[in-house]
Amino acid sequence: MSCGNAHETDCSEVLDHLYEYLDEEMSDDACVKFRQHFDECHPCLEKYGLEQAVKKLVKRCCGSDDVPTDLRSKVMMRIELIRAGEVVVEQDPLTPTEAPTA
Q1: How far apart are CA 1 and CA 15, in angstroms?
Q2: What is the pLDDT of residue 6?
Q3: Which residues form the Putative zinc-finger domain (predicted)?
């Protein structure tokens, strides 16, 4: 997504790191760049607002559920492997695949 205007920080960079921004996992300098981008770019600001609302909804609906420690560890390990580029994301096992044709 891009609004078509030139920005100091590109829209694709902002959207690629949006959850890091939402989760406050960025440096102060990066946060300033993102806030400046949101001030200039309405489409990215809308995407930020939508993702922020989804995050709040998930927290409200699921925030009190206890997650088994082993599941949390497995998920966090998988996330780190994906971030490091060591693992290719597989197809969702819940998504049906086409049956082979004969």
Answers
A1: 8
A2: 76
A3: 11-44
Residue 87 confidence (pLDDT): 65
Beta-carbon contacts of residue 5 (< 8 Å; ≥ 6 apart): 40, 41
pLDDT by residue for the chain (102 residues), tens only, comes to: 556 677 788 888 899 999 999 999 999 999 999 999 999 999 999 999 999 999 898 888 876 767 788 998 999 899 888 888 776 656 555 555 555 554
Give the single-character DSSP code of 88. P
What are all long-range contacts of 38-43, with beta carbons under 8 Å and residues at least 24 apart?
38/14, 40/5, 40/7, 41/3, 41/5, 41/7, 41/11, 41/14, 42/3, 43/1, 43/2, 43/3, 43/11
Q: Which residues of 20-34 are buried (b: 16+ CB within 10 A; e: fewer)?
A: ebbeeeeeeeeeebb
- Residue the block writes with tokens 């693992």: 87
State both tokens at 33.
């760049």
